[in-house]
Amino acid sequence: MSALSHGDTAWVLMSAALVLFMTTPGLALFYGGMLRAKNVLNIMMQSFFIMAAVSILWAVVGYSLSFGHSVGSGIIGNLNLAGLAHAGAAVPGFSHLRVPSDAFAVFQMMFAVITAALITGGTAERTKFSGFMIFIVLWSLLVYAPIAHWVFSPQGWLAHKGVLDFAGGTVVEINSGFSTLGVVLVLGKRRGWPRESMSPHSVPLSLAGAGILWFGWFGFNAGSAGAANSVAVHAFVNTQLAACAGLLGWLLVEKLGTRYATTVGAAAGAIAGMVAITPCAGFVDTLPSILIGAAAGVVSAFAVKMKFKFGFDDSLDVLGVHGMGGVVGMILLGLFATTEVNRGGANGVFYGGGAHLFLVQLLATAVSAAYAFGASWVLAKIVASTIGLRATAEQESMGLDESVHAESAYAGAGMGRIGH
């Protein structure tokens, strides 16, 4: 290993905490406010359960499958890092890092946590809690870990082909978006959707969550530099600019289409911009980051309408924002990447690199989307046909807070059976 750096280690650990903060309370609040009041605690509980279960699973075996020595020509890692073994040795392919391997492992743990938690937004208000949590455990091992190995591990087969993905355009964003599509096609629509109004019960709650997500995303992207260096600074700046451009791009679409610029649209646009810059943050220059964010805001604003056209109930638009935002970022990275920002990257089409990187980015985008969708659909089918994936009609009508957790988010909102 390279000589350890106290500064780099502190930055990576702080970034790991920021990414965890994105899940709880950030994502939990953002999703909770977007749902009907009777399902707020259920979606928050899912984030908390995922934080616990995926963290333990990651330490026991998930980290090793993602970053262990490659087997099967870069398909999956072996078990040499199971139980976070060999903490004093370099992570395979990361000998340049100047942080303890456990610090790298816990930073990547938080990525696994939030990616799984993102799926809950698409399946909200109708899942059987036990069945869905079993699905998440299986998904973490059989979907997340392989894609993470392909792209994030230098020994992965897509990494060998030269794919660039700074902080998870494929592993986190495309993966969560297209996995969500696979699950919701098995799960089916919420009862009454889209005929009945299912408006957010608390937009201020969602805006608070969105603000926390924005704050935490600096750790998500800049922390992926693995060091407190100029690349981290560039990723930090690009994240802010892309978020702002995404917000403005989404509001422009809303204003031209409906004459109203909504606060929900502002939050969604900022998130779309940050999603798109995630793979690009440490590889592109400042002005392209603004273009990438704006493009994501516009594309995602149109993409969320797909569920109404095609009839699938992605409750909180995980495919439209995360899946399609990730696609925008990965493809545009093939055009705008430059080694002037990061010597460890490559030059895209507009910086004299030719078509090679662009084609590799297209390949990674297509493969990760197809695998995430197909494998998630199969896993959801297996869970649905065995222990069940869908809540009962009675539970869905009553609300999952009361019927599953015996609690209500607001005093007087329901009967409750515990602590009353």
Please characterize this protein's 3D structure.
This protein is mostly helical and 420 residues long. Helices cover 65% and strands 1% of the residues. The chain contains 15 helices and 2 strands. A hairpin with a 4-residue loop joins strand 1 and strand 2.
Strand order of the largest sheet: 1-2
| Total number of domains | 1
**CATH homologous superfamily classification:** Ammonium transporter AmtB like domains
- Low-confidence stretches at least 5 residues in length (pLDDT < 50)? 415-420
The span between the termini is 56 Å
Shape: globular
Q: Structural class of the helix and strand makeup?
A: mainly alpha
Using the 3D structure, state the CATH architecture. Answer: Orthogonal Bundle
Return the string of H and E elements: HHEEHHHHHHHHHHHHH
CATH topology: Ammonium transporter fold
Query: Total number of β-strand segments?
Result: 2
| Helix amount | 55-70%
